[in-house]
Specification:
Blueprint (H helix, E strand, L loop, with lengths): L1 H8 L4 H6 L3 H14 L7 H15 L2 H13 L4 H5 L12 H14 L7 H11 L1 H23 L15 H13 L1
Length: about 180
């Protein structure tokens, strides 16, 4: 797990390190995440916004940090990612994106507060497979964020490496090689 994590992400992920204290839980989580990664009926940007809105609702700084990094690596606009915690006051989102984040927050509330109108709008605009995937992704992110928060995991610094301008990265890399 450490080898793969370092190779794929540049460092060992704290959730993996934490779950490694119970190897069966770690392996079940890894198999589950491999399965989830194959879901492809929902637009990746909508999926990312749903996950981050869920993480923001729960207050999982680790998930927000990692989600930002993964989404920036895929090319998602920085402004959309930064504004997730205050999406209602931001003008960078489409009506569909706003509905997705509202749905994520409503599903995450305890008890859930999803209203029929919102669900019907999303179902009509996304179609059944993508709507089911959205619902499942919000539930998956609830699992992730609640585990990470309960275990006390916080930001691992992924976001910090995203917004460094390319020229600065090159000069930093050159400086490190010179040492």
């Amino acid at each position: 797990m450490e080898w793969y994590s370092k190779r794929a992400y540049g460092k060992v992920l704290d959730p993996g390190r934490a779950l490694a204290h119970h190897p069966r839980v770690l392996w079940a989580d890894l198999r589950f995440e491999q399965s989830v990664a194959k879901w492809n009926r929902l637009d990746p940007d909508l999926k990312a916004l749903a996950e981050m809105a869920t993480a923001a609702s729960i207050g999982c700084s680790w998930c927000m940090d990692f989600g930002y990094w993964v989404s920036r690596e895929r090319g998602m606009a920085r402004e959309k990612l930064v504004d997730v915690p205050r999406w209602r006051d931001s003008d960078v989102y489409t009506p569909l994106e706003r509905d997705v984040m509202e749905y994520a927050e409503a599903m995450t509330a305890t008890p859930p507060t999803v209203d029929d109108d919102l669900a019907a709008r999303l179902l009509g605009r996304l179609g059944e497979p993508a709507f089911v995937e959205l619902t499942a992704m919000v539930a998956v992110e609830n699992l992730r964020s609640r585990i990470n928060s309960a275990l006390g995991l916080t930001s691992q610094g992924f976001k910090d490496s995203c917004d460094v301008p390319p020229a600065a990265r090159r000069s930093t890399a050159s400086s490190e090689r010179a040492r």
